[in-house]
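Hello again, I could really use a second opinion on something today. I've been staring at a protein lately and its backbone has me curious. You're getting the sequence in one-letter code plus the fold written as tokens. I'd be grateful if you could look everything over and explain what you see. No rush at all, and the record is pasted right below:
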Amino acid sequence: MKIVVKLDELMIKRKLRLNELASRIDLTEANLSILKTGKARAIRFSTLEALCKELDCQPGDILEYREE
């Protein structure tokens, strides 16, 4: 099982840079980068909520399940 983070795609569509999004959702650039690259082991619901609010999307737009 693999959870894929599609945050990079959404940021490109919305023309947002990492530092801009990080400051808007009050997250460090380092932590957002870890999430964006798929290296995160977990995500807080509050972070997911902030991302969805800022990117005007649903959690399924950010996270996707793929079978290996």
Observations:
- The chain has a mean pLDDT of 95.
- Residues 2-66 form a domain with the 434 Repressor (Amino-terminal Domain) fold (CATH 1.10.260.40).
- The radius of gyration is 11 Å.
- The first strand starts at residue 2 and ends at 5.
